[in-house]
């Protein structure tokens, strides 16, 4: 019923040649320190990325605002024409 084969004749490799804790600590420290090495506004690439994100968000907001104004204006015009047609 089981289709798995377990091979118990595996050669045991020497794990000590894979243990380089100095390199591990160095990689950890460089990764940890690299995240907060420069403030965001002083890093040109990060600052440009931040400006681009803000610009895209502003353009999307403006387009949505324009759509909303275009959608509302026909209703207002229709309401204005109905109120002017009615006698006082």
List the helices and strands and how they pair.
Layout: H1 21-34, H2 44-85
Outline the structure in words.
This protein has a domain at 40-72. It has 2 helices and no strands. It has helices spanning 21-34, 44-85. The radius of gyration is 33 Å and the shape is elongated. The model has no long low-confidence stretch (mean pLDDT 76).
Spell out the key features of this protein.
88 residues, mainly alpha, 0% strand, elongated
Summary of the model, kept short:
The protein is an all-alpha fold and 88 residues long.
Tally the beta strands. Answer: 0
What is the mean pLDDT? 76
Distance between the termini: 90 Å
Write the H/E string, N to C: HH
Beta-sheet strand percentage?
under 5%
Secondary structure class reads mainly alpha
Backbone CA Rg: 33 Å
Task: Give the helix proportion (percent range).
Answer: 55-70%
Q: How many H/I helices?
A: 2
Shape: elongated
Which stretches are poorly predicted, pLDDT < 50 over at least 5 residues? none
Largest sheet: none
């Amino acid at each position: 019923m089981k289709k798995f084969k377990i091979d118990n004749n595996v050669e045991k490799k020497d794990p000590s040649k894979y243990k380089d804790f100095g390199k591990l600590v160095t990689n950890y420290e460089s990764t940890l320190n690299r995240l907060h090495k420069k403030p965001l506004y002083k890093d040109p690439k990060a600052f440009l990325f931040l400006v681009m994100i803000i610009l895209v968000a502003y353009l999307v907001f403006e387009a949505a605002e324009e759509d909303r104004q275009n959608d509302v204006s026909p209703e207002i015009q229709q309401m204005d024409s109905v109120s002017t047609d009615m006698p006082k």
